[in-house]
Write a structure and sequence with these properties.
Shape: elongated
Strand content: 15-25%
Helix content: 40-55%
């Protein structure tokens, strides 16, 4: 994680707040039967320049800490603060909308099917993110637009409110009456976005308004978010401002113990090397010159996986001149692997293990990509976990393990692993694609990374 600022400190000194009343409609199955009855709850919404906080349906406080990129959930009854990377939510929504959008476009292209609840605009509304490159038009329907088929999202003025309609469905209804609270618009839209979703174009419309609407109804949401429809009313702030208490609470990561790496992730103590880089290089070089050089080579490789250090020329010279079979085998095994060669390579790693001595655990860092070639995610994850259990300083293993969680849409674990890697060696070249991915998320979904 990037910081350990107290959630109480993050929101302390807030000068203003909103009282919200949230009403959630009945949740129904495909046959119309109620699976979850209507409910309601009250929430306070507070904000600073760098954070937005609100209460969820269970009474827990959610703190969106944009400065440190943390999502914190404060349970005052349990006296716990559960922390996860703020990027995990936008990564999940971005991946889901891409998957939905690409699938939908293929279906429509192949079969010419009519629009349905899985249409791309509705997928964006469900998830609160836009498909990369999509430019949804928003406006009132005119004679010209009827001929051209636009806009994508239609503004329809009613007597008491404004309807936002797409594909003949009202995605959002915004009251005409409101409050002269333009200072609250950014925090209010962040609450809607993170708690329920909502199409990004419609949330931007609210954010750019001159007044805070008295009520907003979001329709056609996914049942997993709210049961299909949610109404949020702004109540005059009659209750006293109450910042969430968290001082002295147990802070923990958002982990359920389902993954073997969870035990290592829970240990937040900064791992330190037993000796300097220079001393480790000298020790490894001495072993490399010995009769059993493989542990020395692995020690050098471990160092390059930990920190952005180049392999010394004398090490390269010894490697090139070495006649040791184990050294030659390992140098061959770390090269890119074809699927047909993968089973034989795994057997070769097993044969090397007995000659690697105390450095045998590091072989897992090179075995994991071979398991991935065979689509053996569990085996790859186990190999990398064993590396990190033995040495939690191996930046490259944290990065590769994070990558393994992405196909399963487990972006909480992915970002926890990547953040651990970045804390160890932020300038390591192995982490360049994480930085590029984060920049892409920031460019495509900037509203998830700032309060304004």
């Amino acid at each position: 994680m990037r910081g350990r600022a107290s959630p109480t400190a993050i929101v302390r000194g807030v000068a203003t707040h909103l009282e919200l009343a949230v009403a959630i409609a009945d949740q129904r199955d495909d046959k119309g039967a109620i699976t979850s009855p209507a409910s309601s709850y009250a929430s306070q919404l507070l904000w600073t320049d760098h954070a937005v906080s609100y209460q969820d349906a269970a009474g827990r406080w959610v703190v969106l800490d944009f400065a440190n990129r943390h999502h914190r959930e404060i349970d005052e009854r349990a006296r716990t603060v559960t922390v996860k990377p703020l990027q995990a939510l936008v990564s999940s929504r971005d991946a889901e909308v891409r998957n939905c959008g690409e699938h939908i476009y293929e279906v429509l292209k192949a079969g010419g099917l009519p629009d349905n609840d899985f249409a791309p605009i509705l997928a964006e509304h469900h998830l609160g993110v836009s498909l990369s490159g999509s430019r949804r038009s928003l406006g009132k329907r005119s004679v010209f637009s009827r001929l051209t088929g636009g806009p994508d999202l239609e503004i329809v003025e009613r007597k008491t409110h404004t309807d936002m309609i797409a594909k003949a469905r009202c995605l959002m209804a915004i009251s005409h009456d409101g409050h002269a609270r333009p200072d609250a618009l950014a925090a209010f839209t962040q609450f809607l976005r993170h708690a329920f979703g909502g199409h990004p174009a419609l949330l931007r419309w609210i954010r750019g308004a001159k007044q805070l609407p008295a009520s907003v109804t979001l329709g056609h949401l996914l049942p997993m978010h709210a049961g299909g429809e949610v109404t949020v009313r702004v109540v005059a702030p009659t209750a006293a401002l109450r910042a969430p208490a968290s001082d002295g609470f147990e802070e923990r990561l958002s982990l359920d113990g389902s993954e073997p790496i969870d035990a290592v992730l829970r240990d937040t103590r900064a791992p330190t090397s037993p000796s300097s880089i220079e001393a480790r290089c000298a020790e490894a070089l001495a072993v490399l010159h010995s009769a059993t050089p493989l542990p020395g080579l692995l020690a050098f490789l471990e160092l390059t996986l930990e920190q952005p250090v180049a392999m010394p020329p004398e090490v390269v010279a010894v490697m090139k001149s070495s006649t040791d079979e184990a050294v030659a085998t390992l140098l061959e095994l770390v090269q890119p692997c074809a699927k047909a060669d993968a089973p034989a390579r795994l057997h070769a790693f097993e044969r090397l293990r007995g000659r690697a001595g105390r450095m045998a655990y590091l072989l897992g860092a090179f075995e994991a990509p071979v398991h991935c070639v065979l689509n053996q995610r569990a085996e790859a994850s186990a190999a990398l976990t064993r590396v990190l259990e033995a040495n939690p300083r191996v930046t490259g293993a944290w990065k590769d393990l994070g990558d393994l969680f992405c196909p399963a849409y487990d972006f909480t674990h992915a970002w926890l692993c990547w953040d651990r890697a970045r804390a160890l060696a932020p300038t390591h070249s192995l982490l360049a694609d994480i930085a590029a991915y984060e920049r892409r998320l920031e460019a495509d979904h900037p509203e998830y990374f700032r309060t304004a």
